């Protein structure tokens, strides 16, 4: 005895469920003759009568009812899986995973504007350092940095950032500096990302860029989040090498000042990666395009800023 073909099983399952060859044919999008032919093929493969024919009436035999009970569970599972995939594809929820500092200082303010223009769509923003498994964790987009792009099949670069020494107006009033090198004698707020990321420019590198020696001083504070370091600088705790993408709004608002315009470029770009199925969701492609245009806008603004400061 050999197993019936999937097409024969599909016809038999549909017939047993709806109770009519005509209705089964309509559901499967084939002719009634094609369903009858597949029923016969299933019987030939199994070597038993699954249906009994009485004139124009066709009904399940005892063997047919038992066999249908057993295979119908599998077909119900297939239908549930198909419906689940369709719900996911048509879902109005889009999930973005983003590095925490970039999420809070760069993405979130702009995301509110995008959300207001696309009412009815829910955007779930996850601020996470760890790179997600897009498929397993049902994440549509990931915004991250540098070589982590190699973790993903589909990705695009967004922008390459710059840093500049910045502090609060109050801190500068208490610790006036007359030349760039004098910044190194004040309280410096350092940033140390997770080890699996290439580090942002350090005070040592910035000192070298302006031709000044760097001597590590006691009392320096090292923070793991760029956003936390920027916030500490706003609170008057010292100078920070602030990324333009994250500090531009605070600089424009006067919460931070840049006494000397000596920028330093980050070594690697930020990028956006996406799960292929995300583009099949309503507005999924639009959201990806918007993130890309936001990155291009930031890249243009950062380049203009760096040339202005050069």
TrEMBL record:
Residues 4-61 form the HTH lysR-type domain. One of its GO terms (molecular function) is sequence-specific DNA binding. InterPro entries: LysR-type_TF_proteobact-type, LysR_HTH_N, LysR_subst-bd, WH-like_DNA-bd_sf, WH_DNA-bd_sf. It holds the Pfam family LysR_substrate. CDD domains: PBP2_GcdR_TrpI_HvrB_AmpR_like. GO terms for biological process: DNA-templated transcription. Belongs to the LysR transcriptional regulatory family. This is LysR family transcriptional regulator. It comes from Fulvimarina endophytica. The lineage of its organism: Bacteria, Pseudomonadati, Pseudomonadota, Alphaproteobacteria, Hyphomicrobiales.
